[in-house]
Write a structure and sequence with these properties.
25 helices, alpha+beta, 6-stranded mixed sheet, 587 residues, 5-stranded antiparallel sheet
Length: 587
């Protein structure tokens, strides 16, 4: 059963889209709207637009758009009802009981409860006879009892069904544990614990929920580290280990490490701003998530080849998310944990403070590929360095780092400047050609981005969009729309949206775009936000409605509308005769 529409209307009335978005995006007011860097994709130039009077957002970069409910759904990867629950808590409202059958929301809540109970069992076992080996390992790594408790560390016994048996006593069956990613089903149908004989690291999201686990094995089994699979509450590309603690740090910058133990060791040493990605390379989603809480990132990966390669991949991702990036380079230790044990906390703090600028780091990595004593290789270094420097948006930055590369290779700054300018011109030429190709097909720019939503009749669809915009702006205009329905529209999506808005307007409900979130997919809402974001003059709305309806019905006649089309044709002929008679009388 759907949620009561009056409840949703009140919830949206209590939720200001600017205040909501400002909790995760730095917005700047320009005129009557706000702009910021999109939280859903990486960008440096703001293309994320928030419109207060329409209570909607639209990104002109990635295409995401909608209202408050869609924003929470997209930002936190939640289904509709969970997003409503988040907004309701924020607004101090109670979500009404609908008597519906258990669905996605109930399933998520059940998995979160199972994870919490599993974390408690793992933590208890760590300090029992089952966890003696795991506890000894953590003590050898220098982790105090307080640190173990703060991170909720635990131990999974070396048994096939330890957790299954534990949670069965609490009323959960094997299928529940499969849903939560805590159990595995073999080819012959046998179900057993996923984590066995491992030190356990609970993965906690920014709201404090246990969403998954990582486990380090105690013997020679592989893999050394095993993580939870993706579940309805956990996605490794959208979550970061220890961010629930680091987000409250006063440091103003985040230290990014390669694993659980490095992050925990840094926290124990007083660096409460350390985090780690979860068994996967850093993703754009990770970068966007970190950018919500920090302005600067210090990459502190291992100094081996894999660590260097990971840092190289991470730099552009973090930069695109809007973070200022530096890279920490250690000597005398392979990772932060080992460095702190060898040289102490203060020495590591100095390394962090003196972290290398990301461009100097990348230039140094390019340099390692060439022998600068060989003229040919020196030219190769300078050409590759010029390509890198040419990507910088600031002329000042380009000049500074071109000078650094010139000094490294022993050439004049002027010569390097010319090489960078040539690389930049090539880049701009390529971008210009791409823009020209787009400009040659202007009609394609008016089509929905999603191919599944493409318009068959562009002229009619543009008029249909206008009718939808007018209803969003002023639901009172529904009485002037001559009984037109979405069935007459050429676009099925626009027809559905118009009928939904028309019904709401006739029933005195809100016609904000956010009100459609439950009945339209994310892809559909993205496009409807694009429609709603277009300019629409309310002053001449009466004439606009007449013109739009004329276009829609005229195009429908041209397509052929069966018996209804014949009726429309007769109506059109009658209007023509009336207009002709009027003009003759006027003459």
């Amino acid at each position: 059963m759907p949620l009561p529409e009056r409840f949703l209307d009140e919830l949206l009335a209590r939720t200001d889209i600017v205040d909501l978005v400002s909790e995760s995006v730095r917005l700047t007011k320009k005129g009557n709207s706000y702009w910021g860097c999109c939280p859903f994709h990486s960008e440096k130039t703001p293309s994320f637009h928030v419109v207060p009077d329409r209570q909607m957002y639209k990104c002109f970069g990635c295409g995401k758009g909608g209202g408050a409910i869609n924003y929470v759904m997209e930002l936190e990867n939640l289904p509709f009802r969970d997003a409503v629950a988040v907004l309701a808590r924020r607004a101090g409202m109670q979500v009404p009981e609908t008597g519906s059958a258990p669905g996605a929301r109930e399933r998520r809540e059940k998995i979160l409860t199972i994870n919490k109970q599993a974390a408690r069992a793992f933590h208890r076992w760590l300090h029992g006879p089952e966890g003696a080996e795991g506890l000894a390992y953590l003590r050898r790594r220098g982790l105090s009892q307080r640190t173990q408790t703060n991170f909720g560390l635990g131990f999974a016994p070396d048994a096939w069904d330890g957790l299954i048996t534990e949670l069965a006593a609490q009323g959960y069956d094997k299928r529940d544990l499969l849903d939560a990613g805590l159990a595995v089903s073999s080819k012959d149908g046998r179900i057993y614990d996923r984590f066995r004989n491992r030190v356990m690291f609970p993965i906690i999201d920014v709201r404090g929920n246990v969403i998954g686990f990582g486990g380090r094995v105690m013997d020679d089994s592989t893999p050394k580290y095993l993580n939870s699979p993706d579940t309805p509450v956990y996605n490794k590309s959208r979550n970061v280990f220890a961010l629930n603690i680091a987000k409250t740090s006063k440091a103003g910058r985040v230290i990014l490490t390669e694993g659980y133990m490095d992050t925990i060791a840094l926290h124990q040493a007083g660096f409460d701003n350390a985090v780690a990605s979860l068994g996967t390379a850093l993703t754009e989603e990770h970068g966007q998530l970190l950018a919500r809480y920090f302005k600067e990132a210090v990459i502190s990966y291992d100094g081996d080849g894999a660590g260097v390669a990971a840092a190289q991949r991470a730099i552009p991702i973090l930069e695109k998310a809007g973070l200022k990036v530096k890279v920490l380079r250690m000597t005398g230790a392979k990772d932060p944990d080992e460095f702190i044990k060898a040289y102490g906390r203060d020495a590591f703090a100095r390394l962090v403070d003196n972290s290398e600028d990301r461009m100097d780091y990348r230039l140094a990595q390019i340099q390692k590929k060439y022998d600068l004593n060989d003229d040919g290789q020196r030219v190769g270094f300078l050409q590759e360095a010029a390509q890198l420097v040419s990507t910088l948006p600031s002329a000042v930055e380009r000049e500074i780092y071109a000078g650094h590369a010139a000094q490294t290779a022993g050439v004049t700054p002027d010569a390097m400047k010319l090489e960078v300018e040539r690389a930049l011109k090539g880049r701009l030429r390529k971008a210009k050609k791409q823009k020209e190709r787009q400009d040659l097909t202007p009609a394609s720019q008016l089509q929905p981005k999603a191919r599944s939503l493409r318009y068959e009749n562009l002229r009619s669809a543009r008029a249909e969009e206008g009718l939808i915009r007018l209803l969003i702006l002023d639901p009172g205009l529904v009485n002037r729309m001559e009984g037109i329905t979405g069935e007459e529209f050429s676009s099925p999506l626009l027809g559905r949206a118009f009928d939904a808005l028309r019904r709401r307007a006739e029933e005195g409900l809100s016609t904000r775009l956010a009100a459609l979130a439950e009945d339209f997919s994310g892809e559909e809402m993205d496009h409807l936000a694009q429609v709603a974001a277009q300019p629409q003059a309310a002053a001449s709305s009466g004439q606009a409605i007449t013109d739009y309806i004329s276009v829609v019905r005229g195009e429908r006649l041209l397509r052929g509308g069966g018996e209804q089309g014949d009726d429309l044709l007769l109506a059109a002929q009658k209007r023509y005769q009336q207009k002709k008679a009027y003009m003759e009388e006027k003459q």
